[in-house]
Amino acid sequence: MTTSSIRLSQKQYNDIVKLHRSGIRKGFLSTTGDLFLRTLYCSMHRSPHSRVFTALDDNSEKVVGFIACALSTTAMYRHIIFRYGIVFFILLLPNIFKISNVIKILETLFYTTKHKRSKHKETGTKSTNEIEGSSPSAELLSIVVDENARGQKIGKKLVEALERYFHENGISIYKVVTYSKDSNANKFYQSCGFRKRAEFIHHGNVMFEYTKIIEPSIQSPNGVSI
């Protein structure tokens, strides 16, 4: 298994879409079509503000895991809308005839701004306090590993690749948001060293925000610290 962020083929983007479908079944993006998801991940990978890393099978070059991240989620969305806004508008046309879908689209686009300005509940060991949001701009957006490839620490290797990318771009802390009831995701992030910082409501669901400080010394793929 190799971890890569090089230019991906259409087949590999299709693999990413299939993994997203199988591993992320909630949220607005799961209601969109395959072409929308493929275009989204392609535009994310090409944006200067974000990146998609993949774990490839050594024999078939099939994508068996991926992780998407942004140096700044807000900057990434602005870049994507500026460059590909018309394309995404056309792809979303079937979804905009329902007011509920329009609300979800707007919540997805502007959740980072709303999230930073709102108050959150930070859970401590002894008490729960209301704090002003000061979420990191950098974010782990999505991660999925093929069910048949699990148990090989691919997920953690993808997180390591993401952290090298963040480190190289001057990022020292980042976040990830997940559903409060997704026990597998919560356990995984905790095992990777994330700490729960806050909880909030998104699309009517309780979400947990985790943050992680990137260690000063990170190993590059050839074992050399960067």
- The portion of residues assigned to helices is 25-40%
Mean pLDDT: 82
Q: Can you list the strand order of the major beta sheet?
A: 1-2-3-6-7-9-8
User: How many domains in all?
Assistant: 1
CATH architecture tag: 3-Layer(aba) Sandwich
Poorly predicted runs of 5 or more residues = 123-132, 222-226
CATH class placement: Alpha Beta
| Count of individual beta strands | 9
Structural class: alpha+beta
Rg to the nearest angstrom? 17 Å
**Biggest sheet: strands, sense, closure?**
7 strands, mixed
Number of helices: 6
Secondary-structure element pattern, one letter each: EHHEEHHEEEHEHEE
Percent in strands: 25-35%
Roughly how many Å apart are the termini?
22 Å
CATH superfamily: Gcn5-related N-acetyltransferase (GNAT)
Kindly report the CATH topology. Answer: Aminopeptidase
- Describe the global form: globular
What does this structure look like?
With 226 residues, the chain is of the alpha+beta class. It has a single domain (2-213), classed as Gcn5-related N-acetyltransferase (GNAT) (Aminopeptidase). It is built from 6 helices and 9 strands, in the order βααββααβββαβαββ. It has helices at residues 10-23, 34-46, 73-92, 99-117, 154-168, 183-191; strands at residues 2-4, 50-56, 63-70, 119-123, 128-132, 139-145, 173-179, 195-202, 205-213. The strands form 2 sheets. It has a 7-stranded mixed beta sheet, with helices on both faces. Strand 6, helix 5 and strand 7 form a beta-alpha-beta unit. The longest helix is centred in the middle third of the chain and has 20 residues, at 73-92. The protein starts with a strand and ends in a 13-residue tail after the last strand. Residues 123-132 and 222-226 have low confidence and may be disordered.
